[in-house]
Q: What sequence folds into this?
């Protein structure tokens, strides 16, 4: 008789627990799931990390670590050991990891140190840098169970394409991170590994489906993590953990060879998922994307474009040094027309637009802001996205679960059920709708397209085009556990295949508790549920949580996206610094 899902989960969790060296176990005063709602400072305070390990994991971002490693001022074995220990601590506090390969990582780090000592050269642009991976990635010798009992205890015999590229570029891989069952939920809970918690506030979700990555990077258990995104699964955890995350266009970063729980070839009928970085800064995301883009990724994945990072459309040709009278043109999208943003998100978008328009510093003259209105397109994007994502009728996932009698996670139980698979003609019609939406949305970028609502631009009807769009990541703040209900603000850009990223702006403050909903009825059932995150919760749960915005660029313009994000990151940070200084005068 085959093992039940409970037996498999127990064996898997025992295997995982035994992977933490005893000296790295937290004292009994820090049991998993207990203690403070905020555990971000526990690694520094628990006594398990040395002063050097605290310095390595806190004083450098990933870019600085690579610089120090390449110069030999830091040893990879010391850096990797420090992050392995911190990852183990983070896991004990948040349940963020699935697979540990700490010994393999430390062994590779020693090899890289020897290589640098002998040759005087780093192995590659990511030399010696520890990088964590979402559980979907296959690493030889380890499971890619994606939290499903029937896929457990089946170690990968080959590496995913991106794993090969990262190793080629000198990275050190040392752990994989937790995800939600089926990867269709926005929390990170499954029956095999359990639930990942938000390290800053255990009452709020850490997001999904790359929620383990978000929690680990937030805990500084990883300097840079790799997630995947088919509807928001990089950007949502980045928002939930106050981090920067980038979802590339399909074809920029290799995705082949992952465990997605679906039948081979399914993605070609649906929406292609992409892999991308979650980090603490834009420059760290840019470093990872540049290293991958300038490597030989196209030799590992037939979908990857053989084009270097520098060969892509860049932003530098748009900056004042070369185009002084044509600044960075930013479109502010306040609503998608399907779920109206709650008062604190409306306030955030108003603040961001005002800050980017501020003439307080000369450098801000390089940014021009216009308002855009896509409310006529947003609901159609979501309808098409949902239709395409359901072509399988959830049958493959439910087949996986039925093999061991595994139940659906609580959030999915009322949302996922078997349906008839869509016919070839239905799939064709949905793909036609996707192409139509991609074509229609091209007009949003054009001044003459009819979507710019700034009076001056309406009058001009000129030939300018937007460089990027700035919009909410979600119509609500970071919600309580299992309360995230729609991905419409992120999934639209998967449907359109636009590269997009998340930038933290500030935290939710006392003033953000103010503001009530209008008297107009909800736009639809989704909008009604969204409103309940303002009317049916204790709003104080949001205090101190990150507030972020999403930045979007045209298809395949990933270099342009990241460079624009860097400009916006600096501008928003400068405005906040100037405001703080002014308040002290």
A:
């Amino acid at each position: 008789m085959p093992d039940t899902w409970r037996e498999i989960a127990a064996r898997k969790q025992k295997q995982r627990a035994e992977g933490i060296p005893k000296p790295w176990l937290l004292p009994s005063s820090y049991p998993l799931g207990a203690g403070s709602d905020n555990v971000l400072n526990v690694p520094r305070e628990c006594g398990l990390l040395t002063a050097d390990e605290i310095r390595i994991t806190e004083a450098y971002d990933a870019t600085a670590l690579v610089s120090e490693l390449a110069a030999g001022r830091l040893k990879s074995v010391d850096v990797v050991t420090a992050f392995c220990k911190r990852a183990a601590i983070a896991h004990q506090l948040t349940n963020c990891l699935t697979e540990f390969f700490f010994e393999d990582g430390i062994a590779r780090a020693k090899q890289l140190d020897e290589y640098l000592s002998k040759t005087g050269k780093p192995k590659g642009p990511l030399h010696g840098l520890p990088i964590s991976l979402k559980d979907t990635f296959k690493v030889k010798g380890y499971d890619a169970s994606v939290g499903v009992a029937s896929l457990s205890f089946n170690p990968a015999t080959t590496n995913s394409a991106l794993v090969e590229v990262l190793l080629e570029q000198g990275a050190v891989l040392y752990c994989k991170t937790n995800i939600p069952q089926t990867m269709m939920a926005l929390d990170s809970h499954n029956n095999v590994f359990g639930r990942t918690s938000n390290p800053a506030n255990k009452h709020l979700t850490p997001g999904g489906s790359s929620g383990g990555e978000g929690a680990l990077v937030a805990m500084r258990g990883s300097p840079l993590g790799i997630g995947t995104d088919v509807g928001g699964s990089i950007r949502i955890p980045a928002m939930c953990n106050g981090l920067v995350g980038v979802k590339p266009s399909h074809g920029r970063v290799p995705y082949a060879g992952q465990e997605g729980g679906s039948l081979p070839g399914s993605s070609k009928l649906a929406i292609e998922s992409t892999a991308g970085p979650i980090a603490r800064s834009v420059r760290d995301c840019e470093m990872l994307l540049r290293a991958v883009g300038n490597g030989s990724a196209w030799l590992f994945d037939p979908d990857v474009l053989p084009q270097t990072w520098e060969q892509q459309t860049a932003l530098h040709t748009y900056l004042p040094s070369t185009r002084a009278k044509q600044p960075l043109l930013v479109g502010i999208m306040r609503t998608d027309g399907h779920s109206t943003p709650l008062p604190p998100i409306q306030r955030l978008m108003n603040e961001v637009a005002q800050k980017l328009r501020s003439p307080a510093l000369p450098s801000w003259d390089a940014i021009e802001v216009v308002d855009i209105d896509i409310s006529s397109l947003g609901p159609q994007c979501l309808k098409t996205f949902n239709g395409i994502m359901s072509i399988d009728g959830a049958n493959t996932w439910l087949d996986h679960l039925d093999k061991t009698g595994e139940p659906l996670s609580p959030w999915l139980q009322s949302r996922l059920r078997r349906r008839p698979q869509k016919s070839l003609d239905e799939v064709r019609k949905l793909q036609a709708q996707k192409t139509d939406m991609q074509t229609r949305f091209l007009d949003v970028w054009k001044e003459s397209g009819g979507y710019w609502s700034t009076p001056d631009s309406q009058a001009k009807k000129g030939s300018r085009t937007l460089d990027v769009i700035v919009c909410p990541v979600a119509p609500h703040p970071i919600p309580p556990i299992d309360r995230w209900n729609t991905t419409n603000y992120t999934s639209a850009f998967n449907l359109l295949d636009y590269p997009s990223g998340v930038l933290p702006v500030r935290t939710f403050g006392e003033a953000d508790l103010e503001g009530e909903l209008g008297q107009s009825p909800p736009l639809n059932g989704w909008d009604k549920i969204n409103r309940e995150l303002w009317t049916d919760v204790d709003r104080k749960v949001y205090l101190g949580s990150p507030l972020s915005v999403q930045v979007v660029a045209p298809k395949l313009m990933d270099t342009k996206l990241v460079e624009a994000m860097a400009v916006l990151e600096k501008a928003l940070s400068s405005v906040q610094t100037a405001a703080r200084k002014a308040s002290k005068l």
User: Anything to note?
Assistant: Residues 318-324, 578-585 have pLDDT under 50 and may be disordered. Residues 316-391+442-584 form one domain. Residues 503 and 569 are 7 Å apart (CA to CA). The chain has two domains: 7-299, 316-391+442-584.
